[in-house]
Amino acid sequence: GGGRQDVGRGGRGGRGFPGRGDFGGRNGGRGRGRGVRPEPTPLWDASVKWHFDEPGHKPVEGTDEVKQKGMNKRRAREYHIAGREGHRAPSAETAAARAALELRRFKMVKRLRHLLALKCGELGLSGVPLLVFERWLARAMLDGPSAVPTPMLPTVDAGGGLGKDLKRAGVEDLAVAAAAATELAAASKELGKKLTAVASAGDSDEEEDDKETAKTQAETDAAATVVADDAGPLLALKLNDGKPYMTISKAHAGKLRALYCRHSLGGAPLPPDGTPENKAFLASMFALLARYEAMAGAGYQAALGETAFDVLKLKLGVGCEAFASPLNCRYGRFCSAFPDVDTPFGSLGSFFTFKPTRGSFEMNPPFVPETLLAAAQHAERLLDAAQEVDDKLSFVVVVPVWKDTQMWDFLENSKHKQGDTMVVKATEHGFCDGAQHCRPPNERHRVSSYDTGVFFLQTTKGAARWRVTDEIREELRVAMKDAVGSAKTVKDLEKRYRGKPEQKGKPEHGGKPREAVANEEKKAEKPKMRIERIERRDDAPSAGDDGNGDDAGDEGGEKKKRRRRRKKEDE
User: Fold this and answer.
1) What is the CB neighbour count within 10 angstroms for residue 471?
2) What does the alpha-carbon distance between residue 241 and residue 158 come to, in Å, rounded to a whole number?
3) DSSP structure class, residue 150
4) Arithmetic mean of pLDDT, 148-153
5) Cβ atoms 128, 117 nearer than 8 A
């Protein structure tokens, strides 16, 4: 148990990963899928290949009709040529340094969350309010790099939102809550300085010892290696054989590999294990997982289910998401919050800097009032610009039914709104969970926490091209119900993943037979047990280690003991 996972050759389907066509062939066999457009899978739709203007693109000559007709092919050709020539793929050293940095960032964010928990305790709160850190970060990110100079570490309480969230959670005095928020922002700023201290130590006005330290650290980071250990249905990625691990399902790892091959390698297959290109991929995947593990907030990163996306693609031509990540995206191109780690996998950057003039998009921003409003305003500006040049642009906007917010009023009064707002009850639909990449396939979906509103915003030509009918609305409503998941209510979901205590008078285990509950718990613990087994193996003394005065014969005894423990666990 716990052997190293060979990532194989990307396009041909290495062991444990699917190939490029369909699911890649049985047991990771040849699956190139040449000539036939791949069918959508539960995780993503590889058949959608939209391309947008990249820096350095030459203008297309001819009439508007000729320009439109050949634009996507020209973009695709130039995009893949740049990838094949290595203009976008990070080098192994660059990717390794990024992975090492993200591991340090992960630890800094964990420290900041701990400080937040301590502060909540000082304020008399029973715990950290749900998603309070994620909302604090999202508001700060709207203020730009000055508010978040180091990704994930906000240095301001933008709009006093954190203080207000703390007061809403139970702090009686807003001034006390605001002061606590200011202290946390200052602590976050100091953590950010520590994270960037190594890089800044190389500046000309620093001491020679600091420069040497920075040089040594940079060399160490560039030489870092990421390996992927087999942990049953999961892969456990670790940097320099150390902890913590970053886990991801094998299916999602295959998706990331396919995205990486498409966008960083220009469609070429991933070279075998041990090559610089393969090392760069593993390091890039580790950096990505570390960033989103630090973000946490599974509900905060939820997305529409695949059935709903298929309806939007087939009926309304949707082929790009305004808010997504490589882990939850449905299509190969998307906008995301962290381009520094997402770009190797196809990110177009932040939606707030994205300026398309044509196309059909799905927009499901994080459920933070300020972010929702900013996204609606940016979409409105894009629609106004497209309308001025008489082009086709469409947005399907998915938001919570928060009728007392500025966002809701803004969308309701948009001059580009088509028809009535579609409202879906919370119990009648769900989303793909933000933590789907490390959950079993049958637990990818979650019931919605709120009623959801769907707005259709289109230019005149966009409305003519992608007409929103009552039949399409109903088809979308039915499709959204497919993502409810096995937990039918939010209360059930919280009990399952947050360990809510059972109420008095309720039958223990929800009325299930004790044996059935024990079997379910044992099944759920298997991936965790495998990862713990890997940790024990890595922590055990290696052959020839005589640090405790043991001879080589004792190593064999230790191996037997570990094998007996593994056998007992599997039983």
Assistant:
1) 9
2) 39
3) B
4) 95
5) yes
